[in-house]
Design brief:
This protein has a single domain, classed as Nucleic acid-binding proteins (OB fold (Dihydrolipoamide Acetyltransferase, E2P), Beta Barrel). Helix content is 20%, strand content 36%. The protein starts with a helix and ends in a 7-residue tail after the last strand.
Amino acid sequence: MKALLTICTLLISFGLATSAYAHHSMNGFDRAKTITITGTVKQFKWANPHSWIEVEIVNDKGVAELWNLEMTAPGILARAGWKSTMLKPGDKATFGVHPMVNGDIGGQFVSVTFADGLTMTERGAQAAAGAPKQ
């Protein structure tokens, strides 16, 4: 019985350690820098372990770029007042982003300002200029 308990404890410990190891760090994002991009939402992925926003912008050279913005988990977003329907394909918005350290297109989500003036972060509404989006 003691051997079985020891084996179960080791298996559970290994499983937890593997999960912790699998989670990536935020070192790929320049968290000391925040840039602003304005574009059209292509997709809002409400999924674990991280939600994502795909935004199409037109760069300074007039070329369309698809930016992928990593967010936190849907559970955290929901507690902050987010809904899975807040961003829809075709929505125009302005995003605050911690860009990629290596200069690649994309980054970590900081904020979004909707056309009606509402600004949301992963912690909730920052400046409501109208009714919350549904």
